[in-house]
Amino acid sequence: MIADWVAGRRTETSFRGPALAMVQSGQSELIGQLELGDNGADLVEFVCGVAPHQRGHGYASAAVVSLARWLLQGGLAMEIELRIGEHSIASQRAVAKAGSLAAGTVVSHAPATGAS
């Protein structure tokens, strides 16, 4: 993943977007991370991960709301996609708490290699 980000910074082919760190204001302890990906046609996919000892405090919901607001209101995306495992109940709850609606189930995908 790091090599992919470095390639993107060099304007070479990159399959992942930027990664953002989640920290509390004025603190340095890492709470989690957000990764952005361009899925084309004004669709941005993002992945949110929260450190195990930081879960259950609403950080994922707050991050989803903040990032979605920034992307949509800033005109950087028209639609946002979050992919959550069907057995990841905590993630499903966090996204629902943020006001997102389930749009469907992914039944097929290409690995993050750039292939389609």
Describe this structure in words.
- It is a single chain.
- This protein has 116 residues and is of the alpha+beta class.
- The chain has 3 helices and 4 strands, in the order αβββαβα.
- It has a domain at 17-97: Gcn5-related N-acetyltransferase (GNAT) (Aminopeptidase, 3-Layer(aba) Sandwich), CATH 3.40.630.30.
- It has helices at residues 2-9, 59-73, 89-97, and strands at 19-22, 32-38, 43-50, 79-81.
- A 4-stranded mixed β-sheet has the order 1-2-3-4, covered by helices on one side.
- The mean pLDDT is 77.
Instruction: Summarize model confidence as the mean pLDDT.
Output: 77
Range of helix content: 25-40%
What gap, in angstroms, lies between the N and C termini?
19 Å
Order of helical and strand elements: HEEEHEH
Q: What class, by secondary structure content? A: alpha+beta
Question: Helical element count?
Answer: 3
**Could you tell me the strand content as a percent range?**
15-25%
What's the arrangement of strands in the largest beta sheet? 1-2-3-4
The CATH H-level homologous superfamily of the domain at 17-97 = Gcn5-related N-acetyltransferase (GNAT)
**Biggest beta sheet summary:** 4 strands, mixed
Low-confidence stretches: none
- How many β strands by DSSP? 4
CATH architecture of the domain at 17-97: 3-Layer(aba) Sandwich
Instruction: Write down the overall geometry.
Output: globular
CATH class identity of the domain at 17-97: Alpha Beta
Radius of gyration: 15 Å
**Topology-level CATH name of the domain at 17-97:** Aminopeptidase
